[in-house]
Amino acid sequence: MNQENQWPFYISIVLAIYAVIILFFVVRGAMKSKTISDYAIGNMGFPSWIVGLSLAASMTSAATFVINPGFIALYGLSGIISMAIVLPVAAFASLIFFTKGFAKFGKSVKANTMSQWIGTRFKNKYYQFFFAIIAMLLITFIVLINVGLTQVISKSLDTDPFYVLLAITVFVFGYMMFGGANSMLYTNTIQALIMVVVALMIIFSGVDLFEGGVSGFTAKLNAIDPNLTKTFNESSPLYRDFFEVVICQAIVGVAIVCQPHIMTKSLMLKNPEKVNSYLFFAIGSMTIFFLIVIAGLYARIMFPDLTVDGSKMKMDEIIPVYVVKRFSVAAGILVVVGLISAGLSTLEGLIQSLSITVTSDILEPVFGEKITKNGLVINKVVIVLLAVVSFYFSWNQMKEPNLSVGIFGQNGVYGYFAAAFVPVLFGTFVKNVKSSTVFAASVVAIVVHFGIFYLKLTPYMQGTVGNPGVSAAIAICSSLFVAIILHTFNKDKAVA
Question: How far, in Å, CA of 445 to CA of 422, rounded?
């Protein structure tokens, strides 16, 4: 049996063991969850390093480990500058900036979701409901992760992607019906530790390609396509100039932390004095995770024409194929488990935050006490519905994609945090803000982002693929401008 034929057998065994371990910790955490609040933010008093690793695992995903390196394989160094330098630096600075204030206020109002935090901070239930509806955009991120996980597992097992996607949906959404925050912190910690090891393995997997130093490495890329070594790749739809690579990505990086599965992590800290330790472990781990995109360059050298066995690879197939071809069976199995962990960690956080948002912030205001009394049961039903919706869109995206799955996911997620940025910023650091001010800012962000993207209103949207980073950056700036103007005129009438 040759190496590649051994993959399916051994991967199957390891995945079965991995699934059992995950289920063990799900059950352990679920036994401690008695209320909807327990499910949302936990009740077990986890130390800061565990919550920090959980944040790192949630903030990076299958997009970081699979999709983004695929972009790098296509477009080269310009993508690394954008995704591995500009965005992380901006995101880390923003995370430090926001976390302390958000956590403090979140505790004082007992907020379980981003929508509740916003609604309570600005004393406006309608705004809370609006933001809960906007949160549904994050389903696009679930789709992105589903597709990434499916490609990794189906390539490793050499099996039909449809059944892999179905199995992922049933397994993950199934255990999240019972898990919640307590379980997730256990599983995220295990996943993060595996991810650190695997990220280092992938980063160093191309050391031999640097024979002759950095110049030798770039020479290999130049021989394939000179655009791969340019600071800005004019032939790409995402990394054409300084505005796209640096300015827009910096703005996106600052706002990207304003997602519910990221910001609400700080609410799980039982000791607010440990926030610095929490951030240290989170940022340290994420630094390693973001550097994994360099594997895209390794894959491009290995597959210069981006074909394998005579077939053209999709962007989301490049890294899974690279792993199967590059690593021995033993090492490759560990890498595959790491890639799966990267996807599951974020998927868990999204399922948890979205299900709680639907249950507590959409259904409860409409149906009242019936939802309140049966919160955990209703939440399970919501998770089932989310599973059906996400499966449909994920399979449709794999079968008949209208956009690259990376662009599809980015567009939805970027729309959400563009709308969230101003209320989180003003809610944390600005006094006497009128709810109509931040409400208007959120609406402007949504309209500008999707308007620019779908109406192709800038030169950056004119090609076959638009750049959601550009539309989101313009939307964030427009939203902030509107908020500053309105706040200047309305602050005397505002609620403290």
Answer: 9
